[in-house]
Specification:
The chain has 427 residues and is of the alpha/beta class. 38% of the residues lie in helices and 14% in strands. Strand 10, helix 9 and strand 11 form a beta-alpha-beta unit.
Length: 427
């Protein structure tokens, strides 16, 4: 068996060629690799960390794992490069969650400032391989920014559908700057998602939301890198924000494949974190993964402000594989933790802070035990949503008490004024 597309529901298989996102039965598609035939090892992947050459893909943390991602000619890869993001540790971060062995994988240090670049390098590479002329996505911001950049790099037309007035300026600015045709849809993200699917189906545009199975293949490499960062010794927990559930789907698939290949002997537990105002996955989890009931999403964490996630079936499978769970956190918890992560010199957007807030909640509930080791995934850069950060610190974020605010101070232009403030601060 070569690499194929396989339906999660009925098991039907299709060749990779073409633009299929769903099976004829309506089920979601998986990219399935013939793992038994792959000559891969820890040593192979570790050796590639030091590859050098003029081609950007040689320095990519995605294409380092190319046998487990996508079988295409290396000359066709569209890469910036992406990946190779840092794993941060330290006493300040440990104090935030109450765990001695705690680290954050900062995907906000990808080229366009979010984890989306990992999936987009694969999705756009495949779009060019099948001779697509235009690509499209619905987005709360990060997907649009990433797709626009990679499409421009590949010479493809990019069309982004965003909910009108509900995208952070830092993200919208990227889509515009990279040249995407930007369509502001009257409605929320879920309305934009429905419209982009219809448009791609009827107008022959290649869809690059996480419904696309090739996006998932790129996002798997976040987990591959975490394990490589830790010397291939799995942590007890991997905790991450959950919106459209692409990462939830990708992380479980990554772990399952690595165990099947014998590269790891046990699976960490996955913990997906949702904002309380956008938590359909959490509600389903509480009922034993009952059928998803969409919600009208509202949260300060715009990157996960999604009420009807398209990767739900894949995400459920991932949590069942890993004995995983779903937890929700409030916007107050998100923004307070964000202030603490920022103050540790790391910095992240609100959705990323949900992962750390979720870790802290699970520790406080005794679900993550004090002696266990956890890694939280920060999915986006601090500068993705500067408005929320500023509003928190000056006390103008509606419904949020800024418990860790660092307010700017207005002073007269004199040395005495500076000295007075310093004396007050250090007192």
């Amino acid at each position: 068996m070569a690499t194929v597309l396989r339906c999660m529901e009925c098991g039907a298989e299709y060749p990779l060629a073409g633009t299929r996102y769903r099976c004829d039965c309506g089920g979601l598609m998986d990219v399935v690799h013939e793992l038994a035939s792959l000559a891969v090892s820890r040593e192979l992947f570790d050796g590639r960390m030091w590859e050098r050459g003029p081609e950007p893909w040689r320095r990519s943390g995605v294409w380092r794992f190319r046998e487990l991602v996508l079988p295409v000619e290396e000359s066709s890869l569209v890469s910036r490069p992406e990946g190779n993001t840092p794993l941060y540790r330290g006493p300040a971060l440990s104090r935030v969650v109450g765990l001695e062995e705690f680290a954050v994988k900062h995907e906000g240090e990808n080229p366009t400032g979010s984890f989306k670049d990992r999936g987009m390098t694969v999705g756009v590479t495949w779009a060019r391989a099948i001779d697509a002329k235009a690509v499209a996505c619905a987005s709360t911001g990060n997907t649009a920014a990433s797709m626009s950049a990679y499409a421009a790099l590949a010479g493809l037309m990019a069309i982004v559908f965003v909910p009108e007035g509900k995208v952070a300026a830092g993200k919208l600015a990227q889509a515009l700057a990279y040249g995407a045709l930007t369509l502001e849809v009257a409605g929320d993200f879920d309305a934009a998602m429905a419209l982009v699917q219809e448009s791609c189906r009827e107008l022959g545009i290649y869809l690059l939301n996480s419904l696309n199975p090739f996006r998932i293949e790129g996002q798997k490499t976040i987990v591959f890198e975490i394990l490589q960062d830790l010397g291939w010794e799995p942590p007890d927990w991997i905790v991450f924000p959950a919106g459209n559930l692409g990462n939830t789907a990708a992380f479980g698939k990554a772990l399952w494949e690595l165990r099947e290949l014998g590269l790891i002997s046990r699976l960490p537990r996955l913990a997906a974190v949702q904002a309380a105002g956008a938590s359909p996955f959490y509600r389903s989890f509480l009922k034993g993964f009952s059928p998803l009931e969409p919600v009208r999403a509202e949260t300060v964490a715009t990157a996960i402000r999604i009420g009807n996630p398209v990767s739900f079936p894949r995400a459920v499978r991932s949590l069942r594989w890993t004995e995983g769970l779903v937890v929700e956190v409030t916007d107050q918890e998100i923004m307070d933790v964000k202030a603490q992560v920022d103050a540790a010199g790391i910095g992240c957007e609100p959705a990323s802070a949900a992962a750390v807030a979720g870790t802290r909640k699970l520790v406080s509930q005794g679900i993550i035990r004090r002696g266990e080791r956890a890694v939280a995934v920060l999915t986006g850069n601090l500068l993705k949503d500067p408005e929320a950060t500023l509003a928190y610190h000056i006390g103008k974020l509606r419904g949020i008490e800024p418990r860790f605010a660092n307010r700017p101070r207005r002073i007269e232009a004199s040395l005495a004024a500076v000295a007075e403030v310093l004396e007050e601060v250090v007192r």
